[in-house]
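Quick one, T. Sequence first:
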Amino acid sequence: LKTFASQRAFEQERAALVGWGLSGVPGVISEGRRALLLSDVDGAEVADVDGFRAAGRFLRGLHDGSPADTDSLPVPQALDRRLRSWLREAEPFVAADQRAAVLNAFDPTAFDGDVRVRCHRDFHPRNWRRGAAGFGVIDFEHARFDHPLVDCLKVLDLVDPDGRIGSARDGATADGPQGRLIDVRDGAAADGPIDVEQRQPPDDPRWTAFLGGWGRPLDARDLRRLRSLRLLHALGSVAWGAREGDTEFEGQGWRLLAGL
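Structure tokens:
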């Protein structure tokens, strides 16, 4: 039996599990007021390279099976609203100059023309399972339509907690509002494919395995998107963690914010 602190979380989990037609997820047996009786997803948490690859494959099916995005608010405007909301939430905890730096660094133009897809929005190994029936995913209370790269953010928290993937580099040459983003090597095309292995943390193949399963290579525009999404994620982590007294979560947000 899973109970929910908010009606929104209850409705999001129910909508994803009942309406999205996914396999490898809990089934809804019955429901009550802000409560769902769910079938179990067999298996243990997954944290090895094969698990990250399987997670990428699950994500590809989740995103690729999405119906058309019917939200009338364009993605850049929606993300800008989200940022400004978190800036207000962060006001008691983050200095004005730091909030201004985040606002200045955020680049909504990176998302021009993008559409939303079905997203889990809390996609990390604690919510992955592998058992006799294969790979599964739990905890869909944050699930809704969003930008597909949002489902990479918690994975990046694990493999790149210091914000190396998505950070700006000193001396970067101009390529849009934020400059050329992380590890675009000399001679690389500004909008061409990027060698992911050159950017993953040393001796950690999980990110490459995850992207291989997902089947989506990153280009320079994706790196611009990731920087803005990670800035938003870091700011939200600091504000939420400070408000809720979760010092570990707040600390992760500050660490990422400093790296970006």
